Amino acid sequence: MFEPKRLHPTAILFFGIKTLRQSLVGLLPVIILALNDGFVLYTILGILFILIVVVGQSFLSWYRFTYTLEEDQLLMEQGVLIRKKRTISKHRIQSIDLTQTVVHRIFGLTKVQIETAGSDSKTDAALSSLTLEDGKWLHDQLKIKQESETSAITSLENSEQDSYPKRVISLKSLIIAGSTSGSFGVLISLVALLTFDLDSFVPESFYNKATTWFIGLAMEMMVLLSLLSILSVWILGIFSTVIKYGNFSITRYDRELFITRGLLEKKQTTIPLNRIQAVGIKESLIRQPFGFATLYVEIAGGEINKNGDAQTLLFPMLKKQSIPTFLKEILPEYQNVPNQFSPVSKRSLPYYLLKMIWLPMLAIIVGIIFVPNWIYIPGIALVGAALIGFSQYKTNGVHLSKEQLTIQFRLLTKETVLLKQQRIQAFEQNQHLLYKWHRLANMKLSVLNNFTGRHYTIPGLEMNLVNELANWFSYKKE
Amino acid sequence: MRLPPNKRINESAIKAWRLFATLIAVIPLAVTVALFILAYYFDFSVWIGIVALLISLMESIITIIVIPRLRWNRWRYQIFDEEIYIQHGILIVSQTLIPMIRVQHVDTKQGPILKRYGLASLTIYTAATTHEIPALSLEEASELRDLISERARVEQDDV
To answer: B109 lies in a domain?
Structure first.
C-alpha cells in the first residue's frame, strides 16, 4: 500500500551540481597548478575522470533516494555507501516549504523541505526535485491529520477562490521595503560623511601648495566613485527585495498560515497555527520614522537568513498602525497589540547609559594618551552610544494582560514581541547587588525557535513589576 | 525577587567544588614556579615571579575557600507539581521558573569528582534552555529525575 517513490530524474542534476560545487574549491588550485606545469593531457584526463565519478555518484544517490508516505509518517532512505533511513512523524512537523528555483520552474518541478524542531541545523528533510503535482500532494498529505482535507487542497489549487482571509503585498510597499533595507544604511552614512567638512579628514601635513589642487581633484573623484557604487548597491538592494518578496501573499486557513513569495524563485511555506511560538514587530532605525514595520513569527524550523535571524516573515512591510487590523484578519489569536507599555524604572537609566558608553570611554582614554589629534572619533562614538543607550531606556517596556505578555525593546531596531504564557519555555529574573539596593531586576524570557531558542532580556525593571510578571507566569501564586 | 526556593543542594557540594578549584589552581602555581625557574637560569627579574605568586595565591584563596561556600549558600531549588523553581548566583542572583509541561528531558550526570562524594548533577532541558542543579546526592538526583520526567509526561502537541 505504501510504495517507495523516487525523486524526479532531474534530481541527478541537482545532486551533481552540488557535489561539483563542493569539490571545485579544493580542485581548482590543483588544476591551475597542473596547467601551469604543462600537464594539459593529464589534467583533461583527470577532469574527465572526476566528471564520470560525479555523474555516477549522482545517479546512484538518486537511485538510492526513496521516500515513502506511510499512515502518519514520512520514511526516507538514502545513501550510497552509508545507508541512512529517517522517519519523520506528521505530528512533529513544524513547517513545510515548497521552493521552485528558475530551473525547477522550467521543468515544472519543486523542492520540498520539511522542518521539525530537531536540533539538526540542516533541513530535516529535503526532497530536491519532485514534480509540482507530487510536491503538492505530499504537502497536503503531510499536513496535520485533523485538517479537513477538502478545504485546503481545493483552495490551494484555485487560490482565486477567496473565502479565506488573504493579504498581498503591493509593488509600492515592496519598493519602500527594498529602499529602506540594510543597503540604505550605507547610503546614509556616506551622505553624512560628505556633509562633514572634508578637509578635516586630510591631515594638515598633506597640504603642500603644489599638490593641493591634485589631491582635491582626486578626493572629489574618489567621493564621486564611491557615491556611485553605493548608489548602485542601494538600487540592487531594491531589486533583490522585489525579486525575493515579489507576489508575497499570506492566507489564513482554519489551522494554518500559507505564505507564497518570489518572482524568480517561488516559495510556498505552510505554518501550522499551533506551531507559532511568538509574534514580533520590527521597526528598524530607518523605517521607524516613516511608521513602517515588518511582521514576523517565531517558529521552530524555518529558514535562517544571512543575518542569522531565524524568524519567518509574516509580511515584509506594513504601516505600524495597520498592524492590529492585519493581525485581526490573519492571526486573530494575537490581535491585541497594546499601545501603552509600563516603562523600565527611572533608576535604571544610569545602568543603560553605562552599559553603552563604557567601551567608547575606554577608547577616549586610550585616545588621549596615544593619538590626541583624533580624539573626536571616539568622542562621536561616545555621543552616539549614549544616544542609543537613552533610546533603549525610552523604548524598553512591558505590557501584561491576562493571556498575553507584550514586551518592547531595542538594540538598534525596535522590536515588539507578543507572547503567550504557554509558549514561554522558561522565565528568569536576576539582580546584582546594586540592583538589589535600587530594587530593580532584569527579566529574561526564553521561547523556542530554531535550536538555541530565542531569549529576550528586559533590563532594569521595577522589582515589583518583575514579581508581578513572575506571578503571572508561575503556577504558584505568591 | 520572589521568596527563595526551600531546598538546598547537598552540603558535600562545597567539598567537591573545593577539590575542583584546587585542581584548577595548580595551573597558575605551575606558571609561577616556571617563572621562578626562568628567573634563576636567565637574566630575568624575580619580581615578576613574586607578583605572579601573590596573584595565584589570592586567586586560590578566593576560588577554593570563599566562592564554594557562597555558591552553596545561594543555591536553592524547589520542585512543585507544575513547575521547577531554581535560584543561584553569587554576585548576580537569578531565579528561574520552568513549567513542567515545557520540560523535554532530564539527565543525571556524575563525573569523577562528584563520584568521590557520592553526588550527581541534574540537568533539565526545555526546547529552548538547559538548567543544571549541580550537586545532589546520587539517590536524590535519580529520584528527582524520575519525578520530573513523570510530571513532565503531559501531552505536548505544540513542540
So the answer is: yes
DSSP string, A115-147: EES-S-SS-SEEEEEEEHHHHHHHHHHHS-TTS
Alpha-carbon distances of A408 from A279, A348, A469, rounded to whole Å: 12, 16, 15
Residue A282 CA: distances (Å) to CA of A257, A270, A323, A447, B142: 20, 22, 11, 17, 45
Ranges of beta strands (E only) in A53-170 are 66-69, 73-78, 84-89, 93-100, 109-116, 125-131, 166-168
Q: How far is A93 from chain B (nearest CA, A)?
A: 9
Are A257 and A270 in contact by the 8 Å Cβ rule? The answer is yes
- The string of DSSP letters for A413-452 reads SEEEEEEEGGGEEEEEEEE-HHHHHHTEEEEEEEE--SSS
Look at residue A234 in the predicted model and tell me its pLDDT: 82
Statement to judge: residues B53 and B82 lie in one domain: no
Contact B128 A425 (CB under 8 A): yes
Which grid cell is B51? Answer: 607578583
- CB within 8 Å: B89 and A426: no
The lowest-confidence range among A164-168, A203-207, A356-360, B5-9 is A203-207
CATH number of A276-344+396-473: 2.30.29
Segments in A342-410 forming alpha helices (H): 349-370, 376-395
Determine the pLDDT at residue A105: 85
The answer to whether A425 contacts B126, with C-beta atoms less than 8 Å apart, is yes
Instruction: Report the gap between the CA of B86 and the closest CA in chain A (Å).
Output: 9
Across the interface, whether the CB atoms of B97 and A453 are under 8 A apart is answered no
Extract the C-alpha cell encoding A211: 599638490
CB contact under 8 A, A448 and B128: yes
pLDDT top residue among A366 and A124: A366
Asked whether residue B136 is assigned to any structural domain, the reply reads: yes
pLDDT at A197: 47
Residue A152 pLDDT > 50, yes or no?
no
Q: Which residues contact A64 (CB under 8 A, 6 or more apart)?
A: A77, A78, A79, A80, A83
User: How many residues can be counted in chain B?
Assistant: 159
Nearest CA to CA, how far is A437 from chain B (Å)? 12
Q: What gap in Å lies between CA A457 and CA A438, rounded to an integer?
A: 19
pLDDT value for A417: 94
Domain count within chain B: 2
Instruction: Report, in angstroms and rounded to the nearest whole number, the Rg of chain B calculated over CA atoms.
Output: 21
The ipTM of this complex is: 0.84
Cα separation of A126 and A112, whole Å? 6
Please give, rounded to a whole number of angstroms, the shortest distance from the CA of A428 to a CA of chain B: 4
Average pLDDT of the residues of chain A: 81
**Closest to A331 measured CA to CA, from A311, A308, A314:** A314
Q: Which of A424, A452, A478 sits opposite B3 (nearest CB)?
A: A478
**pLDDT at residue B87, as a whole number:** 95
Mutate to test the interface with A, among B129, B148, B157 (most CBs of A within 10 A): B129
Report the CATH fold assignment for A5-157. PH-domain like (2.30.29)
Q: Does B98 contact chain A (CB < 8 Å)?
A: yes
Residues 40-79 of B with CB under 8 A from A: none
Q: Is residue B158 part of a domain?
A: no
The DSSP code for A388 is H
Residues spanned by the domain of B57: 7-72
Instruction: Say if B61 falls within a structural domain.
Output: yes
A452 reaches B (C-beta below 8 A): yes
- What DSSP element (H or E) covers B88? strand B83-88
Q: How many CB atoms lie within 10 A of CB A100?
A: 21
Quote the pTM value.
0.77
